[in-house]
Amino acid sequence: MNYATIKYYDIANGPGVRTSIFVSGCRHHCPGCFNEVAWDFGYGQPFGKAVRNEIFASCQPDYIAGISLLGGEPFEPENQRELLPFVRNFRALYPNKSVWCYSGYTWEQLTGSVPCPARCEVTDELLSLLDVLVDGRFVEAQHDISLRFRGSSNQRLLDVPKSLAAKSPVWWEDEQVFATHSM
């Protein structure tokens, strides 16, 4: 797997200060995508051991809230297989930090209730290691800059542990000050 970029000290892709990993490779090709260059699976640099260790080290300070996985598309099967051991190791090192993931695939597709070419032998385990899934393709006609942590109004911020327990999508609850704020 390749990665397009890594943003250390990111505040745009989840709550708090995070390290965001933008993987390469995406088959969605959403019109208006902000990261079209990352559609190519060969773009960027290899996601090797040294890079992974740099990411782990970047998360050591207490003020780092966690990691966010973006793309490209983290849930392309090729990327899932590489991300699973990485996220397992992150969880072992930092059990109290959060893992967010952005995917153009929906909860229903990733959990198998709707057929999806992205589902593979590691999908269920990778999902189980996430705290929040921001699901759904970016839809340019529904683009809204006032939305927190998502680009278009069709996308959902799902609390993965609660969704798995309920066997249906459960929205992530934002801090009250943000949940009631309107622009």
UniProtKB/TrEMBL annotation:
UniProt entry tagged with the keyword Zinc: no
Cofactor(s) listed: [4Fe-4S] cluster
Catalytically driven reaction(s): glycyl-[protein] + reduced [flavodoxin] + S-adenosyl-L-methionine = glycin-2-yl radical-[protein] + semiquinone [flavodoxin] + 5'-deoxyadenosine + L-methionine + H(+)
EC number: 1.97.1.-
Any coiled-coil regions, as ranges: none
Keywords assigned: 4Fe-4S, Iron, Iron-sulfur, Metal-binding, Oxidoreductase, S-adenosyl-L-methionine
Glycoprotein as UniProt keyword: no
PROSITE patterns in alphabetical order: RADICAL_ACTIVATING
Domain of life the protein comes from: Bacteria
PANTHER family: ANAEROBIC RIBONUCLEOSIDE-TRIPHOSPHATE REDUCTASE-ACTIVATING PROTEIN, PYRUVATE FORMATE-LYASE-ACTIVATING ENZYME
Function according to Swiss-Prot or TrEMBL: Activation of anaerobic ribonucleoside-triphosphate reductase under anaerobic conditions by generation of an organic free radical, using S-adenosylmethionine and reduced flavodoxin as cosubstrates to produce 5'-deoxy-adenosine.
Protein family membership: Belongs to the organic radical-activating enzymes family.
Protein's name in the database: Anaerobic ribonucleoside-triphosphate reductase-activating protein
Taxonomic lineage from the root: Bacteria, Bacillati, Bacillota, Clostridia, Eubacteriales
Encoding gene (name): nrdG
